Amino acid sequence: MTVNALGIYEKALPPTLNWEQKFELVHELGFNFLEFSIDESDERLQRLNWSRKERSEFRAAMWKTHSRINTLMLSGHRRFPLGSADPQVREQALVMMQEAIDLAVDLGIRNIQLAGYDVYYEPKTVQSHELFLENLQKCVEMAAKKLVMLSIETMDDPFLNSLTKIAQVKKQIASPWLQAYPDLGNISAWPENDVINDLENNFAQIVAVHLKDTKKVTPTFKGQFKEVPFGKGDVDFLGCLKALKRLGYNGSYTVEMWTESAADPIAEVKKAKAFFTELFNQAGIQQEKINE
């Protein structure tokens, strides 16, 4: 039987808890690790500038609770994209990347997930594509110097919405420190994608997997990529999990949820955990033992 770790996204948990309480709750809810978020909000971007004392306190909370962070999810590049037409924004994007790498090193995080957008709030152009690749190369060089993995997420955006497209980026930037972080929901939502073929043909570049439900894009519907209750969307989780087990996937899975502002976040996470525990059992996947 295949053994995989199962984590929970930070934005699923009550935001009022301190780090020690969050780490303890992660284990109580039956997860192996927490996925750390640095999004485009001022509050979470400020983490990039944590003092030595703040970093030390965070590490102490992890160690005390026998916890770990597998991935730093860096979605702040939506606000400061690598492919921006504004050179000052591009410079800020590179500064953000270096700060994220340094933070990951200090916190013992080995993988940074990059949002695969050339730009998000700006018009997409040939130049935005080229600027993204030019600056991604710089990011990979920064990460390689510190032995930190960068993994591009398959997105809710046509620019990089499949592992096949990420593989094309890797042909331009050939580095072992640039890999892929597929989101099964995002891949499944795009009608041009054959999910199983995409996983099979690009399996060697997968370092982690997001579990999220979505509703498919159609000619008359732009799709739904967030906050679709598990089991109510179009993702064939069991089929995907069986395929990944057959391929020999030993990396981690993260349940991606945004329930931190729900009336009862813990109840929502418990439902999701039960949903995936059943699917793991059906697929013949054993969850890694939880540290105590």
UniProtKB/TrEMBL annotation:
Task: List the source organism.
Answer: Bombilactobacillus mellis
* Gene Ontology terms: biological process: L-ascorbic acid metabolic process
Q: Which residues form the Xylose isomerase-like TIM barrel domain?
A: 23-277
GO MF annotation list: intramolecular oxidoreductase activity, interconverting aldoses and ketoses; L-ribulose-5-phosphate 3-epimerase activity
PANTHER family attached to this UniProt entry: ISOMERASE, L-RIBULOSE-5-PHOSPHATE 3-EPIMERASE SGBU-RELATED
Answer whether the UniProt record assigns the keyword Chaperone to this protein. Answer: no
Please verify whether the record's keywords include Isomerase. yes
Q: Which controlled-vocabulary keywords does the entry list? A: Isomerase
- SUPFAM superfamilies named in the record: Xylose isomerase-like
Q: What Pfam families does this protein map onto?
A: AP_endonuc_2
Give the protein name, as stated in the record.
Answer: L-ribulose-5-phosphate 3-epimerase
